[in-house]
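User: Please write out a complete single-protein record containing the residue sequence and its fold in token form, without commentary.

AI:
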Amino acid sequence: MFGLGPWEWALIFAVVLLLFGGKKLPEFARGLGSSIREFQEALRGEKKPSTPEKSPKAPETLDKTIDG
């Protein structure tokens, strides 16, 4: 893939591990996976099932008048 051999991939992984640390890598991978999933859903025109949207509330009127 991309013309890189196993040693190049190992070197890239080691550099990323040194830069981000072991604790940040799972968070990074999870975020990358969810963003790729969202992008693919957007390309297909699918919508994730989510909570029903709330209708916007009308602004409350103030009963007090401002004395000028």
